[in-house]
Design goal:
The longest helix has 23 residues. Helix content is about 40%, strand content about 15%. It starts with about 30 loop residues before the first strand and ends with a strand. A hairpin with a 5-residue loop joins strand 10 and strand 11. The protein has about 400 residues and is an alpha+beta fold. Helix 1 crosses helix 2, helix 4 packs across helix 8 and helix 8 packs across helix 11. It has 14 helices and 14 strands.
């Protein structure tokens, strides 16, 4: 990624980084992560429909921390809740390693990419089960290409009213999170021209993207009940908004991100999202109303973030101006400095953000792997190694040029 000189996060002792004394410091918010993965054949580098089998093989070691997904190309790994992100990072690595071992028993590898790089078959093979069958009946061809993988971050917020208000406060920052986490430039053998094609594919669902502004928990529940009654969604689990109160946990669930290339990328995302929630809670408890960007502008900002990622420009939903995407991330991180300092995550975020400013997002790194020899095999091999370094390397012809990725 070509980066421009940007302002850095303030040092620990700068005024921006040091909040005014607050008396007894609030407890650290818990964070849990769900990561979705694709399975690939290490010879063909194509996706393989063996998610249920690999999930079953991993369950002996991971228990409830592994599950299936909509398509048989996918599976999900989950962490326990953590208050210290060093522990979360260790568990992310161990869950990925366990999934990689289970995949290896079937001659496969796991990849953490928001989209299938090559070998997708449409309509996709769906995982057996009544819910997925009902989804196909209701949504029809929308299910045909849903092999996209996301990273979901849960932050502990037990009060329903605060959870709704946190969602309101996070809305203006959702496009910035999309750009930070972009990791899906390729789709079935072509470069889409987007940094996060997953964001675009999910945007076709009837309840997806940035959520509405909700006046109260009652307002939220009234809309959800109407969506279920009119068969727009199957149930509350079918709300695919970028942020929502979890329907089964006392958390706010942020669903805006692509599956992250490395565990370190995931940990950066978790630290930033926890700081966003903590900052929102502080504002809520001080009686501050959330900003209300125009829905059309917020949608446009999300589209721009999906297209450009960190390498282009961001549309600020509040000022309606285009600025370099990296500068928008810097603005967000400066605003979060007090919360990051309180949680002990400021150094982690500084280090990982500086790495992304140099190396680029996951999408940038995927494209860099392709440029080396114009090989999609190289991209898949790079993602395999980045997902879990302990995975055995692919066994097909290493990086043989396979022609230009098709470009829309």
């Amino acid at each position: 990624m070509t980066s421009q000189p940007q302002q850095q996060l303030p040092p620990d002792d700068s005024p921006a980084a040091c909040p005014a004394p607050l008396g007894e410091p609030p407890a650290l918010l818990s964070v849990g992560v769900e990561e979705e993965f694709l399975l690939v054949d290490p010879v063909s580098r194509s996706v393989r429909p063996e998610g249920p089998q690999v999930a079953a093989a991993a369950a002996g070691e991971l228990g409830q921390r592994v599950g299936t997904e909509l398509t048989r190309y996918q599976l999900e790994g989950r962490t326990d809740p953590h208050t210290h992100l060093g522990e979360a990072l260790a568990e992310l690595r161990s869950v990925r390693a366990a999934l990689a071992r289970a995949a290896a028993t079937r001659g496969l590898r796991i990849v953490s990419s928001g989209s299938p790089i090559t070998g997708l078959v449409a309509p996709v093979p769906l995982t057996p089960g009544p819910r997925y069958a009902e989804s196909l009946s209701l949504f029809r061809a929308l299910d045909d290409e849903q092999s996209a993988c996301a990273c979901h971050v849960h932050v502990g917020v037990a009060d329903p009213r605060e959870a709704i208000e946190v969602s309101n406060h996070l809305r203006p920052w959702l496009p910035t999170l999309t750009a930070l986490a972009a990791n899906s430039p390729y789709w079935d053998g072509r470069d889409t021209g987007y940094a996060s094609w997953r964001t675009t594919t999910w945007g076709r669902w009837p309840v997806a993207g940035p959520p509405p502004y909700f006046d109260s928990p009652a307002h939220f529940q009234e809309l959800v009940d109407e969506l279920i009654l009119t068969r727009t969604v199957l149930d509350q689990g079918g709300l695919y908004w970028d942020v929502r109160p979890s329907h089964h946990l006392p958390t706010v669930e942020v669903r805006v991100a692509d599956a992250a290339l490395t565990p370190e990328d995931t940990t950066l995302l978790a630290a930033v999202i926890r700081a966003l929630v903590a900052t929102a809670l502080k504002a809520i408890r001080a009686g501050e109303r959330a900003p209300r960007p125009a829905p059309a502008i917020l949608r446009a900002a999300s589209w721009r973030a999906a297209r450009d990622g960190l390498a282009g420009h961001a549309l600020d939903p509040l000022t309606h101006r285009l600025i370099p995407a990296a500068a928008q991330v810097e603005r967000m991180l400066r605003a979060l400095s007090p919360a990051l300092r309180h949680s002990g995550d400021l150094d982690l975020v500084r280090t990982q953000w500086e790495r992304l400013r140099v190396q680029g997002s996951g999408a940038d790194r995927q494209r860099a792997a392709y440029r080396h020899r114009s090989s999609l095999h190289d991209v898949v091999d790079h993602v395999i190694a980045a997902t879990c370094p302990s995975q055995a390397p692919p066994v097909g012809k290493p990086g043989a040029p396979d022609g230009q990725a098709r470009r829309r």
